[in-house]
Structures are given as C-alpha cells and as structure tokens.
Amino acid sequence: MPKFLRNLFVFILIIIFVVAFSSSYASLNIDNLAYVLAIGIDTSDENELEVTFEFSTTTAASESGSTEKAKPVINSVKASSLTNAINLMNSYMGKEINMSHCKVIIFSEEFAYQGITDEIYTLTNDTQVRPSAKIIVSKCDAKYYIEQTQAELENSIYKYYEVLTKSSKYTGYIPNSTIGNFFNSSNCKSCQPFAILGGINQSNSQSDSSPTAEQDYSIKANESSIEGKNGTENIGVAVFKNDQLVGELNALETICFLTIENQLDRFLISVPDPVNSGKYLDIYLAPYNYSQIKVDTSTSSPYIKVKLTFSGRIASMSEDSSYLTPKVLDSISESCNHYLESALSSFLYKTSREYNSDINGFGLDALSNFFTVDDVYNYHWLDNYRNAFFDVDIDTKVRSSMLVTET
Amino acid sequence: MSSSKISTLDAIMLVLTIVVTHTILSLPRNILVSTDSASILNIIYVGIIVIFIGYFIYRLLKTFPSADIIDISEYLGGGLLKTIIGIIFIAYFIITSSILLRNFCESIKIIYYPMTNIIYIVLLFVVAICAANRLDFSASLKTNALIIPLVLGSIIFLFFSNMNQFTPQRMFPIFGKGLLDTFILGLTNLASFGGIVFLYFLPPLLNKPEDMKKITFISIGISAIYLVLCVATLLFMFSFFLDTNEITPLYNATRYIEFGNFFQRLESVFLLIWILAFACYLSIISKFSMRIFQKITNIENKKALIDIFGLLIFGISIFPKNYAVSNMFETKIYPNLVIGIVFVLSISILILANLRKKKQNNNGKENSNA
After folding, report:
1. What CATH number should be reported for the domain whose range is B2-369?
2. Which positions in chain A touch B167 (Cβ < 8 Å)?
3. Which of A246, B148, B250, B364 is deepest in the core (most CB within 10 A)?
4. Using beta carbons and an 8 Å cutoff, which residues of B are at the interface with A?
5. Chain A nearest-CA residue for B240
6. Please, what's the b/e burial string for B124-160 (b: 16 or more CB within 10 A of its CB; e: otherwise)?
C-alpha cells in the first residue's frame, strides 16, 4: 500500500474512533454529571416510591483561603420505580445522576417491612453503585433522615458518610452493612441480611429517673439521649428475613452480634460489680480469639455451640477500688462471663425464636455437616433456625484496670 | 530461523493465554454452576486428569519430532485430512476468539463506554491485532510472556486482598451436587484447560524441543492453580453466582478491594491488564490461524492474510444479535468444542498416526529381516 494511502487510512481510523468514543466521554464528563452522596427510598401513595437524592456541591472557598461547609442539595421525586425516579431527576437537574460516589442508601422502616429486593437488585445492576455503599434502615422517613443528617466535624457530608461506621470497631453499636453484603446475604441459603438501624436524634433525656447501665445498653436509634447538631443517629441492627425487615436489635444485642461475627476490636460493657452489690463496673473487653462455632444438625433442631474468649481491662474507677487482688479480678471475670452468656443467649434466641433470621450465618458453619447440596436443601436451614438451641460459653480474663490499679 | 523459534517460557505462557482470557469472563462461573461447592475439588481432580492427558499427548507427539498436528494429519490421511483438520482448527480459533472478544467488549461497553456502539469497541481490538500481526511472530510471544505473568499476579493479588471478605465454609458441602456431578459429569470442566491446544502446534516451534515435557507439566500445573484461585475467590466471596449471572464475575470481585480510604477503585487497573491480555491472545490466535492457513494452502506471503483474518474476527464478533447469543456460545457451545476438538479429535489423530507409524516400522523390520 502506498505510504500516502496508508497515512490516509490511519487518519480516517483516528477520526472514526474519536467520533465513536466522544459520546461516551461526553456522557461521563464531570460537567455533565450530578454526583449523588445518599439515596433515600420511602413509600408513597398508590404503589409509588418517593426517592430522595442528596447531591454533592463544590466547596466554597473564601478569600482568606478558609473553606466553608458546602451545603448539599436535597431533591426528591415520586415514581413507580427507582430507575424511573432517577430518570425524572436527570431531567430536572439537567445533568445525569452518577452514583459512583453514593455512600449510603437509606430505606424507611415502613418501606423495608414491605421488602426491598427490587431496589437492591436494581442498584446492584448499576455499574456505578459501589458494593461498599452502606445500607441504613431509618425509623423515620428516609427523606427526613437525609435532611437531618449533618456533618459536625467534617467539611463535607461525604466524609461523614465515609466514616459513619468506623467507630463501631470499638463501640460495637453499628454493623458494617453494605449493599454488596446485603445482596450476597439475601441470595444466601444459609444466612440472612441485616442493615444499620438509623433514626432521628430526639434527645430522650430519660429525665424521670437517672439512667441505669441496662438502659444505656438497651437503646436503639431514635431512643438515645444524645444532643447535637447532627440530627440523626445510628445505633442497632435492622434484621431482615429474606428481603423484609422483621425486627431490630438494640446496642447490647448489636455488640453480641458483632462479637460472634469477629468484627470488633474492643467494646465497653457494664457488668454487676461482684464486690459492691448494686453497682456496675465498666470494662473494656477485647476478643482474644476468633469465635468458635460448632453446629450439630443431627436433628431437625440445630444445636449451636458458641465459644468466645475475651481479655478485659477495667475502665471505671471509684474510691476504694482495689483491682490488684487475683481473687477480685477472678470474680470480675466471672461476672463478665455470666453477664455476656446471658446477653448472648438472649440475643441468639431473639434472632431464632422471634425473628427466625440467621443474620450470624450459622448455616454456613453447618455446611460441613453435609456431603451434598441436596442434603443441605433437604434440611431447610432457614426454616429450621427457629428451632435452634444455643450453648454459649464465654471465657473472660480481666487482667487489671488501666493506669490506676488501686484507690 | 532461530528468530521464529520460541523459548520454553514463551511456550508456557502461550498455553496459559487461552485459560487466562476465558477466566476473565464466564469460565469460573461455569465451573461453579456445574459443580457448586465442589468446584475447587473438581478443578484439582480435572487438573490431575489433564496432567495425565498432557503426558499422553507428549508421548504421542514424541513419535513425530518437529511435526505439529497439521503435519501429522497429512502423514495420516494425506492432503485431504490435512486440509480438513487445518480448516477445523482455523474455524475453532477464529470463532471462539471472536465470540470471546464480543463478550469482553460487551463488558467494556457496559462499564466504561455506555454510549459507544459495540462495533467501534470491537474494531479497536481488531485494529490493534492487525497492527501487532505485522510484527514478527516472536514479538507477540515476547509481549505475551510479559503480560500473562502480570495477569497471574493480578489474580493472586485479587485473591489475597479480598481474603477479609472470604467465607471459606462455602467450600462445603464437600461433594457439591454429588459424586456423579463432581467426578463424572464434572469432567466437562476439562474444557477449562483449552489452552493445551497449543501443545499440538509447539514441537516445530520450540527452541529446545527436549523441554516439551517440562512445558506440558508446568503450563497445566499453573493453569490448574490459576483456576483454583479464580474459582476460590468467587466461591468464598459470593453466594449468588449460582443463581445470578454477572457479565464479568472476577470484575465484580475486584470492586471489593479497598485498602483504607485511599486505595479504592482498583478495578480499572485490573481491566487495563485484562485488555492487554486480550489483545495478546487475539494476536496469537490470529497468527496461529494464519500459520495453519499458510500450511494448508502453501501461500508464501503472510502479510496479505493479516487484514483478512482481522476482518474475519471483526465480522464474527459483531454477528451475534445480542449478548444472550454470544454468552450462550461461550457457556454452552465452547466447552463442547474444546472437548470435541482439543481432547477427542486431536488425540484420536495422534493415536491413529502413532499406530500407523508403528505398523510401518514393523513392516520395515519384517522387510529388512526378509
């Protein structure tokens, strides 16, 4: 081929590719996109959804160089489906909605009771939605939840959503529920999905009487006494059976759930003081080993044995405290064991008897008891979970207090 | 002539090319669907069988040093059989690679180029392979020898970086759908080792023909380990691939990789590596097809064939009406083609040729004794 013709051919090819790919480039250009940070899905009249979008805006910079908090834009739309809602919002915004930076997906409690499969499948089908986007079930309307959420310490709401569950590693109050895990669990034949329980910070001050340790740990979202600028709070677990919300777990139950899941670095609990009756000791516990789970499926009532080990340090101090005596430390350890065994048993029977939802995925541990998939199906794990019996074994070793050992 | 000969490493990477490219798309899911939780056990079992088959192929090829399957066909059935076998292999290479290209381009379109017509994405690959095929044969092989280790490394990285997402209990129940499905019906997963097709063409190309045995064992061994890693990643991470079909299962796994808030969204890097691997694969496949075509037609000028084979790949790639058709070919027809052509037809030819050779040798000995 003559050189001129070859060059002409190459030139024409380049032109073809530039034209062909420019439409994709233009559609993904940042100027043509509206980035969604959070999506809220509520029920509406006549089988419609009300979808709320929280968009990011650029941070305004003042002349002095300091940055002001960028106020996110919140818009909502009613439509028959999520994709139609997105389409309508595209039209309204004049830009294409892009969900590659969507950090949280909020479902109202009312909506979650009806089932969220279609929305989860639709979002999973979207290449832009990250599997790490968090799933929250809000005890109020999702729209109201988004409106009330404010970043107090961060300049951007995006950063707040990103660190939303970070504190759970040491509080154990929020599960790390993502759309990836939710979709995975909702398709699992041996486990069930769960989500973060969110709500409005109503500043329940419990003014009638001074709060007890039990009350501190029985709170859920919507029930805490926190007062702050951020109008929302996330405490607890929303328990699902298949795709429908069936119940909620409070703070202590969430701790129990996360310890079995091995998702905690440490956590704080208040146990009865064995030395001073009527008083409580605050103790930091850290899992010592991974949780050991054995499941016996020889009968139609699964027998589940859970063994957890913890090492602890006493956090609370008062006058006349003496934590250098082995006998005292042993008795505190024993108190922790009793307290946690009771709490864990109560939590496990609640998920089994009350919710019939294996959110801990004990069914996965039972799989090794079977030889074939047919054997597993014939056992009907998800139905039989309601008949399960639990044996909780806790071994806590409280080492000492922290800096001060005796007063 | 030494420039057209290939080293032992290049030959190993050549065999791995087909396994690697098919694994990027639906191959791991096909294995999971056919054998469920016993997929890892099945791949190990099938891998051992393929090692024996590979050794058998090596022994059969040893009788015909410096001859490939086309030459052996000619020896067995003359020019007619040579032409028939040549056309079968050309059709096998071109059709399977074209449909695979179509499926891969569908994935790229969905992920990155939603507004671009699939024809232009396919065309981009075809132009790339036409340009690459104008270079020497060894140039493609050397590039392949660079890219394939990168893909292998990426899969190892994918496996270890996703370990925090793993639920190893999903490898139970150990026999999956049952002993029959795992060990008898699961033999269809022999198709996963389709890369051994290149073993039939290697003898005349090798720099060191004495390394053929080593090449056979190492390439099959690495293929098996690679497949186990891919299948284990999907099996341990996801519960939904048995019921839900995703276009690129491994791409889905790459989206879960996160190291803190900074290192996120690494899937683009994986896709870049896989695109390079695909370009290498297509270049090698078309070069082998041209080589066979040259052998059966005695055409001397290879350059005239480059664009024709490029257009052939392009035409077949855009032929399926939609993704459902091309996916059906990859999941239902391709495994049967591999078993039929690579394992049954080719081995039959080698066995018959060996028998003929043995008979000729015996006749020769009898004549000399007489």
Report:
1. 1.20.1740.10
2. 361, 364
3. B148
4. 36-37, 110-117, 120, 123-124, 127, 167, 169-170, 172-178, 237-240, 243-244, 252, 255-256, 258, 261, 264-265
5. A187
6. bbbbbbbebbeeebbebbbbbbebbeebbebbeebbe
Per-residue pLDDT of chain B (370 residues; tens, 9 = 90+): 345 688 999 999 999 999 999 998 888 888 998 898 999 999 999 999 999 999 999 999 998 888 999 999 999 988 899 999 999 999 999 999 999 999 999 999 988 888 889 999 999 999 998 988 888 888 888 899 999 999 999 999 999 999 988 999 999 899 989 999 999 999 999 999 999 999 999 999 888 888 899 999 999 999 999 999 999 999 999 886 666 667 788 898 998 988 877 778 888 899 999 999 999 999 999 999 999 999 898 888 778 888 899 999 999 999 988 888 888 888 889 999 999 999 999 999 999 999 998 888 888 777 777 6
Q: Which two tokens stand for residue B172?
A: 């139970």
Of B112, B173, B255, the CB nearest to A131: B255
Nearest to B266 by CA among B121, B113, B162, B125: B162
Contacts of A28 in chain B (CB under 8 A): 112, 114
Helix (H) or strand (E) holding B327: helix B323-328
Domains of chain A and any CATH numbers: 31-261 (no CATH), 266-407 (3.30.300.210)
- Give kind and range of the element (H or E) at residue B87: helix B69-111
CA–CA gap between residue A296 and residue A303 (Å, rounded): 5
Which member of B117, B170, B173 has the closest CB to residue A375? Answer: B173
CA distance A280 to A252: 15
In chain A, residues with a C-beta closer than 8 Å to the C-beta of B244 are 187
Could you say which of B115, B174, B264 has the minimum Cβ distance to residue A371?
B174
**Cβ neighbours of B174 in A, within 8 Å:** 368, 371
Contact assessment for residue A364 and residue A255, using Cβ atoms and an 8 Å cutoff: no
Q: Indicate the residue of B112, B175, B261 with minimum beta-carbon distance to A162.
A: B261
